[in-house]
Design a protein that fits this description.
heterodimer, A: alpha/beta, Rossmann fold, 42% helix, globular, B: alpha/beta, 38% helix, binds thiamine diphosphate
């Protein structure tokens, strides 16, 4: 087990973490609210319930550090500093979106923010993150690379191949697994043997590997700090498994606890562990942010969101002749 | 007795009958027994046949394809499912190097009765990685069979034929066919692999179509008929082997041909069809044409989906030029958004 510095109490850091956390929640809730208008015509995989991992990990990264992700990437993108207007415009398929409408919700990118790309093929960006860390090191650049993925990605061969190589080359890469127990509607216990943990499987590759509570924002932040410090010090890769839970349907804006793959009771138990409410309780208890402060933070995010949505909806669609642009680099 | 079923119901019924008839038939794939049951195609099967024969899988496409191959080697007749063809790309090694060649490279000592079901996505922002129609990749490989049934009748009969075949069959289903209804006979029947079907007869022009494009071709043919042009629509159904005799005979009769495929034109199945027509020396009144996907990945935005996917109107325009017909522009008003098959489709899948 890692030796982690005492739990972070610095008020400025906690405020920042709270804002980042709530922002991810509020953006995805707004998407869920707007989606039934049928103007965002692409699949969306919401991070609601899992935001603490995005907020906690990304707050430890510098702008020049890189992040790669998969289909459920909104939180990672936002927490890393990806542009909200360009993300929303992308959902609306507009020319001002982060890919100009080519990719949609499942293909986010913001190079200025160090968000190197997210794609919806499970596990696909894990080795790319490893390669990016290797490439950056070869070029003498000091970057930490974080690969975000769900626990199902650890079932893909490519995950194991990538972790092996990262260990072999002692690369500054952090594998962040959000274990939300499901791959679409298939629970973990019919996909992996019950007598072991995902973090243990990773450890078999010789990587430093830790399992932790994914709904404890500050805990995530502190653990990520340890992993980032190791990476910066040249001590090699780290695997972090965070236990968490997706609240809404796998893909789309609604709840689906009624369709029969999981119970309402299970959902409610996780709902009790809401990362936002939990952090709010802590902040109120310690007095770091009071109710008024929280209202202000939320109000600012609401304004930002209103503007971003208005921007997205007012943006033009890409013109017909752009269909084939970027098939090849000219 | 025949009654109307939807495409997905016909797949379900075909699977059910094949499993009832032969205890060696098994079906596996991520989500097979889940409440959505691969868009309804596997619903109820696990309750009926148990979790050994109807199995969920880890998210491990490549390895699990090898596992399915192993089951076949052990005497089972596995069906494997992929929600999208794009996910099956992880399995190319097992399929192309191994399954396709097992019978051949071991001197015919073993057989490979394996069905791999793959769905082609379209619309609602399926985009670059959830929409690829790569039938031509598979059809390029000797040892694989490749089919793309279009109607509920054919999807049931061809699924049964594929399950009963001793070769690996790549079974490609277009998502936009799933809700189409049509007459489906009750009970066990099979539609032979390698046979095309003339969906509509006509004397002026042959439209050779794959999968969902056969639906668009029929629409185009009906519209062209109102302008006095009779198009024959041939649904190829099976890409490897494919029914050259039926296609070539039709083209020889009409002297004009459009090949329309759900995949890209370049180096694709449509090129194969045109090449065989040329090699057979069939005299044509006008050069052959292809109406397929343009040469780019699939854009996600609905704005470009409209330009990306060819539809009946595009077939009509090409046919009009070939037949010297003056089609009025704006002939057909577009009444629904172009990124959905019908108004009941509200995403996200
Ligand atoms: C290679 C591949 N197989 C299957 C899919 C279909 N798919 C999309 S999301 C998903 C679930 C993945 O689960 P997990 O990685 O745990 O992420 P979560 O959705 O739980 O966040 C699956 C199987 C895919 N996109 N890519
Ligand atoms: Mg998961």
């Amino acid at each position: 087990m890692p030796t982690i510095a005492p739990r972070t109490t610095d008020p400025a850091t906690l405020r920042r973490l709270y804002r980042d956390l709530v922002r991810v929640r509020m953006v995805d809730e707004r998407i869920a609210e707007l989606y039934p208008e049928q103007q965002m015509r692409c699949p969306v995989h919401l991070s609601i319930g899992q935001e603490a991992v995005s907020a906690g990990v990304c707050a430890r990264l510098e702008r020049q550090d890189w992040v790669m992700s998969g289909h459920r990437s909104h939180g990672h993108f936002l927490a890393k500093g990806g542009s909200l207007p360009s993300m929303l415009a992308e959902m609306y398929g507009r020319a001002t979106g982060c890919t100009g409408g080519k990719g949609g919700s499942m293909h986010l990118i913001d190079l200025e923010a160090g968000f190197l790309g997210a794609v919806p093929i499970v596990g696909s960006t894990i080795p790319m993150a490893v390669g990016a860390a290797w490439g950056a090191r070869s070029r003498g650049e000091s970057r930490v690379v974080v690969s975000f993925f769900g626990e199902a990605a650890t079932e893909e061969g490519v995950f194991h191949e990538a972790v092996n190589f990262a260990c072999l080359k002692k690369l500054p890469v952090i594998f962040v697994c959000e274990n939300n127990l499901f791959s679409v509607y298939t629970p973990l216990d019919v996909r992996q043997p019950g007598n072991r943990e995902v973090a243990d499987v990773a450890r078999g590759h010789g990587i430093e590997s830790v399992q932790a509570d994914g709904n404890d924002t500050v805990g995530v932040y502190d653990l990520a700090g340890w992993a980032v410090d190791r990476a910066r010090a040249g001590q090699g890769p780290t695997f972090l498994e965070f236990k968490t839970y997706r609240w809404r349907e796998h893909c789309g804006p609604y709840y689906d606890n009624d369709i029969g793959y999981r119970t309402e009771a299970e959902y409610l138990a996780w709902r009790e562990k809401c990362p936002v409410e939990r952090f709010e309780r802590d902040l109120l208890a310690s007095g770091v942010v009071d109710a008024q402060g929280m209202t202000e933070i939320r109000a600012a995010i609401t304004r930002e969101l209103d503007e971003a949505v208005a921007f997205a909806k007012a943006s033009p669609f890409p013109p017909d002749h752009e269909m084939a642009t970027f098939t090849y680099a000219e | 007795m025949s009654r109307d079923l939807k495409y997905f119901q016909a797949i379900n019924e075909g699977t059910d009958l094949a499993m009832a008839a032969d205890p060696r038939v098994q079906i596996m794939g991520l989500g097979v027994p889940d409440p959505k049951g691969i868009f309804g195609t596997t619903a109820g099967l696990q309750e009926k046949y148990g979790s050994e024969r109807v199995s969920d899988l880890p998210t491990s496409e490549n390895g699990m394809t090898g596992v399915a191959i192993g089951c076949a080697l052990a005497g089972m007749r596995p069906i494997m499912t992929h929600h999208r063809l794009d996910f099956a790309l992880l399995t190319m090694e097992q399929l192309v190097n191994q399954a396709a060649k097992w019978h051949y490279m071991f001197g015919g000592k073993m057989r490979m009765p394996l069905v791999i079901r793959m769905l082609v996505g379209r619309g609602w922002g399926q985009g670059p990685q959830h929409s690829q129609s790569l039938q031509s990749w598979f059809a390029h490989v000797p040892g694989l069979k490749v089919v793309m049934p279009t109607t509920p009748h054919d999807v049931k009969g061809m699924l049964i034929a594929s399950i009963e075949d001793d070769n690996p069959v790549i079974f490609i289903e277009h998502r936009w066919l799933y809700n189409l209804s049509g007459p489906v006979p009750e009970g066990h029947y099979s539609v032979p692999l390698g046979s095309a079907r003339i969906m509509r007869s006509g004397s002026d022009l042959t439209i050779v179509a794959t999968s969902y494009m056969a639906v668009e071709a029929l629409r185009a043919a009906e519209h062209l008929a109102t302008h006095g042009v009779q198009a024959e629509v041939v649904d190829v159904r099976s890409l490897r082997p494919w029914d050259e005799a039926t296609v070539l005979a039709s083209v020889a009769r009409t002297g004009r041909v459009i090949v329309t495929d759900t995949g890209w034109a370049a180096v694709g199945f449509s090129a194969e069809v045109v090449a065989r027509i040329a090699e057979a020396g069939i005299p044509l009144k006008t050069p052959p044409r292809r109406v397929c996907l343009p040469d780019s990945p699939t854009p996600t935005t609905p704005a470009l989906a409209a330009v990306y996917y060819p539809r009946a109107v595009d077939l009509e325009k090409v046919a009009a030029v070939m037949c010297g017909l003056d089609l009025p522009p704006q002939d057909r008003a577009v009444t629904i958004p172009l990124d959905v098959p019908d108004m009941t489709f509200t995403g996200p899948f």
